[in-house]
Write a structure and sequence with these properties.
Layout (H helix, E strand, L loop, with lengths): L1 E6 L3 H16 L3 E3 L7 E6 L4 H17 L4 E6 H12 L5 E3 L7 H8 L28 E7 L10 H4 L4 E2 L2 H14 L3 E6 L6 E2 L2 E2 H9 L6 E4 L1 E2 L6 H5 L9 E4 L6 H7 L5 H14 L4 E8 L6 H14 L4 E5 L17 H25 L4 E9 L4 E5 L5 E5 L8 E10 L6 E6 L4
Parallel strand pairs: 1-2, 1-3, 3-4, 4-5, 6-8, 8-11, 12-13, 13-14, 14-15, 18-20
Antiparallel strand pairs: 6-7, 9-10, 16-17, 16-19, 17-18, 19-20
Helix pairs in contact: 11-12
Length: 430
């Protein structure tokens, strides 16, 4: 039996797809690419923007058109948002919401045994996934948190992911021990709002500190996180070489007026001060971010404030979103909606700033040591991977193996902006 997976959206989706695919492989299914023939196609959807919805629809329609006799299953956030639409137009055979995604294997496996399982009749469980040993990634993603209580004025996540909930800390430690024992060298913590992790008396800082005490040759990376007021204790954890000096901290806007309208729980001043504290404590720390342009009421002055802040903080990458109306959110009914043309223009400005920032950060790192995790070795002998600061690296050397750490020094930058390539050379010690 052949099964193919397509994942759209965030790292939480990526983690869940990895865990699901690993479960199918364990049961004897063949995991194939989505451009191949398969008995089952699973699309793990996203609904964060209108564009996300459209990409999901296109993917599902294309699969149905090319594979009319295959079983097609949609899961993820778009299902929570548009389940009836997906079922009524017969695009999919099953539409499984986030709360029951963990049971996808049981639903599909029973289907081919002649039994139809109604997903709605299954228990809700956001963390009912086995450790993923056979994944689509060199890194092992570990989900620690789901849902959100922030209710930002533009966001559907509390409606499609539910209220904030944290995974049992002992289950997290056990999962990490198992994937490290299996051979994974990088662990990536992920969650919808994982900085708010709280399981009984264990908070996010406690969790990270305890993970760093786990035996094994691995490094720990924190993925996308909200800009909470990180304590001195938290920043001190980065003294441990296992903890990668990089975080993707979501800004969304650098203008005070816009942040207030977004119902974000911080000011631009607080965000800037937080970044300054991080860079003072860990000078080469790499901060990346998300930014929304064209939010309702965003004036040219507001936008320029955001652009200037992006320059000054020096994010090495800015994931730029054009504001997208999501029905059911407060922002959808706000006056002064920004024309699409202006959104596009502003997005281009931020992308240029991001490219300039990236080049500047990469150049700043020339001559500095890094520990490269080799993720792929091309047929031409070029090894590709990332350093602890989340710098994509290329290395020409002999006898390199995937999934190994290597001491390197940043040597040269070739190309411009987002097309810059960082070449490194081997070092004896760091």
């Amino acid at each position: 039996m052949k099964i193919a997976f397509k994942t759209l959206g965030c790292r939480v989706n990526l983690y869940e797809t990895d865990a699901l695919a690993s479960r199918f492989k364990e049961a004897g299914y063949d995991i194939v690419e989505t451009n191949e023939n398969a008995d089952v196609f699973v699309v793990n959807t996203c609904t964060v923007t209108n564009q996300s919805d459209q990409k999901c629809r296109q993917a599902l329609h294309q699969i149905r058109r090319q594979h009319p006799n295959s079983l097609i299953v949609a899961t993820g956030c778009m299902v929570n948002h548009r389940k009836n639409e997906l079922l009524e137009n017969k695009t999919v055979d099953y539409a499984i919401d986030n709360e029951r995604k963990y049971a996808l294997f049981s639903i599909i496996d029973n289907h081919f045994k002649g039994e139809h399982v109604d997903p709605e009749g299954l228990d809700i469980d956001l963390f009912g996934y086995k450790p993923a040993f056979d994944t689509f990634h060199t890194r092992s993603l570990i989900k620690i948190h789901d849902g959100c209580n922030n209710f930002c004025s533009y966001c559907l996540i509390p409606m499609v992911r539910g209220r904030a909930t944290s995974r049992c800390d002992k289950d997290i430690y056990d999962n990490i021990r198992k994937v490290v024992d299996h051979g994974f060298k990088e662990i990536v913590l992920t969650g919808v709002n994982m900085g708010r992790y709280q399981y009984q008396d264990v908070n996010f800082e406690d969790l990270v500190e305890n993970i760093l005490k786990i035996d094994g040759d691995f490094r720990l990376r924190i993925s996308s996180i909200e800009p909470d007021n990180f304590s001195d204790r938290f920043l001190s954890l980065f003294e441990n070489k296992k903890l990668a000096p990089h975080m993707h901290i979501c800004l969304q806007s650098g203008a005070e007026n816009t942040l207030k309208a977004m119902r974000r729980h911080y000011t631009a001043y607080e965000f800037r001060t937080m970044c300054e504290r991080i860079k003072t404590a860990i000078p080469d720390f790499n901060i990346t971010t998300d930014l929304i342009v064209g939010f309702p009421g965003e004036t040219e002055e507001d936008f320029l404030e955001s652009a200037q802040m992006c320059k000054e903080i020096g994010f090495s990458h800015i994931h730029t979103f054009k504001y997208s109306i999501r029905n059911g959110t407060k922002a959808a009914t706000m006056p002064n909606q920004i024309p699409e043309k202006i959104k596009t223009e502003r997005s281009a400005v931020i992308r240029n700033i991001s490219a300039e920032n990236k080049k500047r950060y990469f150049e700043h790192m020339i001559g500095k040591p890094q520990i490269m995790l080799i993720e792929r070795v091309n047929t031409d002998g070029i090894a590709l991977g990332y350093g602890e600061n989340y710098i994509p690296m290329r290395l020409k050397a002999k006898d390199l193996e995937k999934n190994t750490f290597l001491n390197v020094i940043v040597d040269n930058i070739i190309g411009k902006g987002d097309k810059s390539e960082v070449y490194v050379k081997q070092a004896d010690t760091l």
